[in-house]
Amino acid sequence: MTDTEPTDPPTDPETGTDPETGTDPETAADESTAAATDDATSERDTDAILVASLAESTGKTAITLALARIAQREGDSVGYMKPKGTRLQSNVGKTLDEDPMLARELLDLEAEMHDLEPIVYSPTFVEQAMRGREDPGELRDRVVEAFETLAADRDRLFLEGGGEYDIGGIVELTDVDIAELLDARVVLVASYAVPGDIDDVLAAADAFGDRLAGVVFNDVADAAYDPLETDVVPFLESRGVPVFGAVPSERTLSGVTVAELAEALGATTLVEGETDGYVERFSVGAMGPDSALRHFRRTKDAAVITGGDRAEIHTAALEAPGVRCLILTGGHRPSGAIIGQATEQGLPILSVQTDTLTTVERAEDVVRSGRTRDAETVDRMEELLSDHTAVDAILEDQ
């Protein structure tokens, strides 16, 4: 046996084509490659829907899982994936992202966590990426591989975006990039309070382009609901941005109870009081007593956070009807008179060891993320989406 040099296929010397087929070999090779690509695309017939948002804590998780549950009830086999985990326990990347675990439970999935959340987008990860130690190409391959594993034999795969839609640009994996990479259509979750908020919606619509299926406005306050429907929605649709609907604000979804807040902060309860009251905002008692009283009387469903040694602020908070609880920082215990008055009024007093600034940051994070992110939250979101949005249009495979 002798080695022989590979030979090119025979061609007509005048036309440069294959004499048997009459085609240009190079053209045939290109067409073969294109056909292979088309075959690969056709194999990925799972409908991918990416739920992205303009900001963190807009109800994106509840909406994603509610849509998946609705599709599941309609007979579709569904999957879930969060390509970038952004809710972290530590800078080095230990994930605190409960969303994939909740999805696995509610949707009865058997998927592995490394597929449900292939990238943990921690500060350390970002630093390594900036130093060139994370290869964007390899990361994209990891996301695609996880997607293909989760999409196998599924009618739909619901993708949850990571925080704000533009997070991930350092490694070329923003939600815009992911939508393109996984051939997903996009449902954008947005809040609305003032007309200027629409600038952000238009910017996102421009970024997603034709992949944007439409917008769902969530947690819309009563005062903003009518202007949104009568002015904003027609304006957006005139600009080519479909709107699927607007979900009104609901206390059980936008706030946390005093009891949930106490648990999340690791607080000691000095006065039990009415711990099932909802907290939607915070007031910091860093001013004088007269100013504090005026400020507290204007607030509603608030927790007052102040030093445990600020007796005059404690008194002012107890006189304000919109205060739902008093959170005392620094581990200080209030006077017996304050505890007695709070007990008489049924106002909970919580004590934490952390300083005021740290406590405010942690408390705001609890309210933003919503400790009500559980099966009951998703159940209620299903009802709200069915009542206030065009769910059929959202799920329509285009």
TrEMBL record:
Q: Which UniProt keywords apply?
A: Glutamine amidotransferase
Pfam families, alphabetically? Answer: AAA_26, DRTGG
User: Where does the record place the DRTGG domain?
Assistant: 260-364
Q: Where is the composition biased (Acidic residues)?
A: 15-29
Q: Keyword ATP-binding on this protein?
A: no
Positions of the UniProt region annotated as Disordered = 1-44
Q: What InterPro entries is this protein classified in? A: DRTGG (IPR010766), P-loop_NTPase (IPR027417), Ser_kin/Pase_Hpr-like_N_sf (IPR028979)
Low complexity: compositionally biased ranges: 30-39
**Protein name per Swiss-Prot or TrEMBL:** DRTGG domain-containing protein
What organism does the record attribute this protein to?
Answer: Natronorubrum texcoconense
